[in-house]
Amino acid sequence: EKGNHRHFMEKEIYEQPIVVAQTLGAYVDPLAETISLPPLPFDLAGVKRVQIVACGTALLAGQVATYWLESLARIPVQIENASEFRYRDPVYEPGGLALFISQSGETADTLAALRHAKAGGQHIAAVVNVASSTMAREADLLLPTHAGPEIGVASTKAFTCQLAVLAAFAIALGKAKGRVTPVEEARLVHLLTEIPAAMNEALKTEESIHALALPLSKARDILYIGRGPDYPMALEGALKLKEISYIHAEGYAAGELKHGPIALIDENVPVIVIAPSGPRFEKTVSNMQEVMARGGLVYLLSDAAGLAEHGAGTAATIEMPSVDPFISPLITAIPVQLLAYHVALAKGTDVDQPRNLAKSVTVE
Ligand code: M6R
Questions:
Q1: Helices and strands, counts by H and E, the chain
Q2: What residue stretches are annotated with the SIS domain (predicted)?
Q3: Quick count: other Cβ atoms within 10 Å of Cβ 258?
Q4: Cα–Cα nearest to 289, from 273, 267, 307, 269
Q5: How far apart are CA 193 and CA 342, in angstroms?
Q6: Sign, CA torsion 259/263/266/268
């Protein structure tokens, strides 16, 4: 039931600190500061490459994970949406791990891709929320998320739980490949344990986001930009907004803007800039300034330090807690979800049951 919340989506956004903690609890030993995975039917150290396949928001969780997997395990990672994957006639090599991500565990394209990769001799891992689902049964290695039932069609808590599992898996793979030392593992695990409290902080952005919703709800197009893992977060922001508010939205890699999309910018186009402090901040800010120079309305999502440095001249700022870049996608997710939710409320759309969409897509 919805409890005190107006919609399942709002309830599920607010559940995230708890369900992410629950999910991490299945992978993390907080005292030993180590990761443990369920029993493995194959040797993780022998994994030579990872192919991620999923749809929609689950695909975007996978896209964030590509950064973690490549930086921690130093093996090649590819990602593709499930509806296209088989049409590439993918090349399967020994030692390949195919990793499927799905809330429902029933999405037709993802399931078909899983069976294709299995027939191709790949090890199959699946990050799945519904434990009794077909994908959960057919995977060699099931990596469950413990988000509980997700009712809202727009995925929120399943997404952040997927990120939590993928971050833990990346650490485990890095360790198995001899790339993550025990000291580094302890540092990363400690960061994971900080996520729930930082998520609670991030939920406090709701009031400032509510104040932006009415003007944003009048926009015809909204762009989201980010760099590195903030790029898939920009894609996720745009997907969430399109899905429930029906406003046309696009996510772009911040540096790609000047290769075309910047032609869209005028004083009517809001641009949500996802730029937490860290290694990519200055470059994203310079892309933000290119937007401002063309009259675009910039909404900057950053932490206190980032906003103090570059918040001036924007249409509005959203302050998220300051966290290590390793965990920032899980924290950024919250204001991104709240923004879509409040814009949809301002538009009066059916948040939990958006038009034309189904919770589980069981046709190809
Ligand atoms: O059940 P799955 O995770 O496999 O579903 C994948 C997509 O259909 C799903 O994430 C969809 O994009 C959501 N409605 C996004 O909010």
A1: 13, 12
A2: 40-179, 212-354
A3: 12
A4: 273
A5: 29
A6: negative
Ligand 1 atom 16, closest CA: 154
11 among known catalytic residues: no
Place of tokens 């040797």: 43
Which atom of ligand 1 sits closest to the CA of residue 104? Answer: 1
Share above pLDDT 90 across residues of the chain, in percent, rounded to a whole number = 94
Residues paired with residue 249 on neighbouring β-strands, in sequence order: 222
- C-beta separation of 275 from 300 below 8 A: yes
How far does residue 195's CA lie from ligand 1's centre (Å)?
Answer: 23
- Split at pLDDT 50, 70, 90, the class of 356 is confident
Q: Which of 55, 242, 363 to mutate to test the pocket of ligand 1 (most atoms within 8 A of CB)?
A: 55
Atom 14 in ligand 1: residue holding the nearest Cα: 154
Residue 273 φ/ψ, nearest 5 degrees: -105, 120
Residue 46 has what DSSP assignment? G
Closest CA to ligand 1's atom 9: 56
pLDDT tens digits for range 26-36 = 999 999 999 99
Under a CB-based contact definition with an 8 Å cutoff, are residues 278 and 297 in contact? no
Query: CA 168 → CA 17, 63, 110, 187, 227, distances in Å?
Result: 16, 15, 22, 12, 22
State the alpha helices, DSSP H only, in 26-107. Answer: 56-73, 82-85
Interior angle at CA 284, CA 283 and CA 286, nearest 5: 65
Sign for the pseudo-dihedral over CA of 322, 323, 329, 334: negative
- The per-residue pLDDT for range 151-179, each reduced to its tens digit, is 998 999 999 999 999 999 999 999 999 99
Instruction: Find the residues whose C-beta lies inside 6 A of ligand 1.
Output: 55-58, 102-104, 107, 110, 153-155, 243, 360-361
Among 129, 236, 241, 361, residue to substitute to test ligand 1 (most atoms within 8 Å of Cβ): 361
Q: Indicate whether this complex's ipTM tops 0.90.
A: yes
Nearest alpha-carbon partner for 272 in 327, 338, 207: 338
